[in-house]
Design goal:
The complex is a heterodimer of chains A (231) and B (363). Chain A has a single domain, classed as MetI-like (MetI-like fold, Orthogonal Bundle), CATH 1.10.3720.10. Chain A is globular. By secondary structure, chain A is an all-alpha fold. Chain A has helices spanning 7-40, 46-58, 61-72, 77-86, 94-118, 122-130, 135-146, 148-164, 167-173, 183-192, 197-229. Chain A starts with 6 loop residues before the first helix and ends with a helix. With 363 residues, chain B is of the alpha+beta class. Chain B is built from 9 helices and 21 strands. Chain B has helices at residues 36-44, 90-95, 107-113, 129-142, 159-176, 187-193, 211-216, 221-224, 325-331; strands at residues 2-10, 13-21, 25-29, 51-56, 59-63, 66-67, 75-78, 147-151, 179-184, 196-201, 204-210, 230-241, 246-251, 254-259, 268-274, 278-281, 292-303, 308-314, 318-324, 338-343, 353-355. In chain B, the strands form 4 sheets. A 6-stranded mixed sheet of chain B has the order 7-8-9-3-10-11, with helices on both faces. Chain B has a 5-stranded antiparallel sheet with strand order 2-1-4-5-6, covered by helices on one side. In chain B, β4 and β5 form a beta hairpin. The radius of gyration of chain B is 22 Å and the shape is globular. Classes of the chains: A mainly alpha (231), B alpha+beta (363). The A-B interface holds A 121, 123-124, 126-134, 141-142, 145-146, 228-231 and B 44-46, 69-72, 75-77, 79, 81, 83, 85-87, 96-97, 99, 123-126, 139-140, 143.
Chain lengths: 231, 363
């Protein structure tokens, strides 16, 4: 087993990072918004929203993939509109893989950020209001910075979940080398062929190392944040 | 001038307060659970009344179809806990509410007034309790409020820290001309700070007026506190006796000599004389160490059958004395009798004395 990575391995690794990065980046604003709604607001349909957000956590990933296929496929209502209006195709593309990963990781992201926001002392938000800050300024200057530990852990959890996403991805965007064959899909593929165990082992090591690096980075970041908050 | 008239149903009791806070420091006084904090939360817009009206210098903050959000009421709020932002330095906290181009007090003035210049770069978690509360006061000040609400800002501090903060609160009134509504259940803070007082009981505002008047009223005595019973007298510093380190005050009944106070002659004061520090004699005593002796008349004798009785004397102003019921009987005290009231000079110290506001006061 050589140390250098084969072009195919590099391709899968790069694709996994790209898909996860964009999945987290694009879903983060929605994740923060939904987490804030669930943590700080009472409204009719709150339970329903909570349930919907958590759905990907409890239904089989294949079901999520199927639902994405039905709605975001070329002939699905949303998919057709995206294609006709913006020339965006999700199915069988890495963008589709990012959408699948984002949906599957969303509950974990929201849960962590919600905990972070709930941990912010509301009395500090009240104090900011009496100092002349409106709701949006209070959110940006008090709530968000103090919820940063929760937001960071939401990002890391979601990123890790995206890296490992398999079921919804393969159902929605299939297994296309260089386009949708992320690390887990690649491991599955090499195992399908006879004698693929060695290649699978190498890909597995890459996955494990990647996960460890992500965890280490998050730990370093959260330590710095905690120091800044004076805890 | 803050005009307040608010009602709200709360679990257990109904809140119903009506009062006017004149310029200066107005204390909202009552036992824990009387609804004091709810009242100032409603004034600040942090709690919603069922009905009523709040106006400041004629501008309606609440009522008549108006309900300004807290950030647009122009009121400062100093909370019981400091509530400093932990992710900002002291300077960041102080600047949080500053408006660009606003007149009001400047940053450097506030830093100097509250003596917090050395703390500016620190994080709140590295401050002592007294320092935190000073920064919290500064932060509220720099938002240029028209009036400051304070909810027992000294409640979480020990006696030394309290003594450290009190002069700064007096400075808000005396040097910046700011009005303050001050929630407290500590009599000595009120005597020290307040110009007028609103007495609250079970959600109702039962009396309001000058501290001396409200605290001397017989019918309010169950609320103004049995354990702390006493009288509040208006006084003026007449002079100092440096040999014996005493200060002579003029009170309505005559002179009152007390342990030396660091105050200039002519300063207008409120002095609290606790009822248990006042003794009664039938004839003018001689050969006695007590320096302060007043001729007066017994007005009322109040007793609940316990070991002690509270006697309201008129010495030119109302003065309460607390003696044993046995002494009442042995001396044959009765309303209308001429007696002498004795007050030990050492019973009165800086904690019993407050400077009266130099602002014009409403009658």
């Amino acid at each position: 087993m050589s140390i250098g990575l084969s072009p195919l391995e590099l391709e899968a690794l790069g694709l996994s990072l790209k898909v996860s990065f964009w999945a987290v980046l694009v879903s983060l604003p929605f994740g923060i918004a939904v987490a804030w709604l669930l943590a700080r607001r009472d409204f009719p349909g709150k339970l329903l929203l909570d349930g919907l957000v958590h759905l990907p956590l409890v239904v089989p990933p294949v079901v999520v993939g199927y639902l994405l296929l039905v709605t975001l496929g070329r002939r699905g209502p949303v998919g057709a509109w995206l294609h006709d209006s913006f020339d965006i195709t999700l199915i069988f593309t890495w963008r589709g893989a990012a959408v699948a990963a984002a949906v599957m990781a969303f509950p974990l992201m929201v849960r962590a950020i919600r905990l972070g926001i709930e941990a912010v002392d509301r009395r500090l938000e009240t104090a900011a209001r009496t100092l002349g800050a409106g709701r949006s300024r209070v959110f940006v200057t008090v709530t968000l910075p103090l919820a940063l530990p929760g937001i960071l852990s939401g990002i890391v959890l979601a990123f890790a979940r995206c890296l490992g996403e398999f079921g919804a991805t393969i159902t929605f965007v299939s297994n296309i080398p260089g386009e949708t064959r992320t690390l887990p899909v690649a491991i599955y593929s090499v195992l399908q062929a006879p004698g693929g165990e060695a290649a699978a082992a190498r890909l597995t090591v890459i996955s494990v190392v990647l996960a460890l690096v992500a965890l280490a980075v998050s730990e370093l970041l959260s330590r710095r944040v905690r120091r800044r908050l004076g805890a | 001038m803050l005009d307040v008239s608010l009602t709200r149903s709360l679990p257990g009791f109904d809140l119903n307060v009506v009062f006017t806070a004149p310029p200066g420091i107005t204390a909202l006084f009552g036992r824990s659970g009387a609804g004091k904090t709810t009242v100032i939360d409603m004034i600040a817009g942090l709690a919603r009344p069922d009905a009523g009206r709040v106006s400041l210098n004629g501008d309606v903050l609440y009522g008549d179809g108006v309900d300004l959000p807290p950030e647009r009421r122009g009121l400062g709020y100093v909370f019981q806990e400091d509530r400093l932002f932990p992710h900002m330095s002291v300077a960041g906290n102080l600047r949080y509410g500053m408006k660009r181009g606003a007149s009001g007090v400047g940053f450097d003035d506030v830093v100097q007034l509250l003596d917090i210049g050395a703390l500016l770069d620190r994080r709140p978690h590295r401050l002592s309790g007294g320092e935190k509360q000073r920064v919290a006061i500064g932060r509220a000040l720099l938002a240029s409020p028209k009036l400051i609400l304070m909810d027992e800002p000294l409640a979480n501090l020990d006696a030394a820290r309290k003594a450290e903060i009190l002069p700064f609160i007096e400075r808000l009134r005396d040097e910046l001309g700011l009005s303050v509504v001050y929630v407290s259940h500590a009599m000595e803070e009120i005597v020290r700070l307040a110009d007028s007082v609103v007495l609250m009981e079970a959600g109702q505002s039962v009396a309001h007026g000058a501290v001396e008047d409200v605290m001397s009223r017989l019918d309010l005595r169950p609320l103004t506190g049995r354990a702390e019973a006493g009288s509040v007298l208006p006084a003026t510093v007449a002079g100092h006796d440096d040999t014996y380190r005493l200060t002579r005050l003029t009170v309505p009944g005559g002179d009152l000599t007390v342990a030396q106070l660091d105050l200039a002659a002519g300063a207008e004061l409120r002095v609290r004389v606790r009822a248990r520090d006042v003794s009664i004699s039938l004839s003018e005593p001689t050969d006695i160490s007590v320096l302060n002796r007043y001729r007066g008349t017994v007005r009322e004798i109040a007793s609940d059958g316990g070991p002690q009785a509270d006697i309201l004397l008129d010495i030119g102003c109302p003065l309460w004395a607390r003696v044993t019921r046995r002494s009442v009987d042995e001396l044959g005290l009765a309303p209308g009798m001429q007696v002498f009231a004795l007050v030990k000079a050492v019973a009165i110290d800086r904690h019993s004395v407050g400077e009266r506001g130099r602002l014009p006061r409403n009658p």
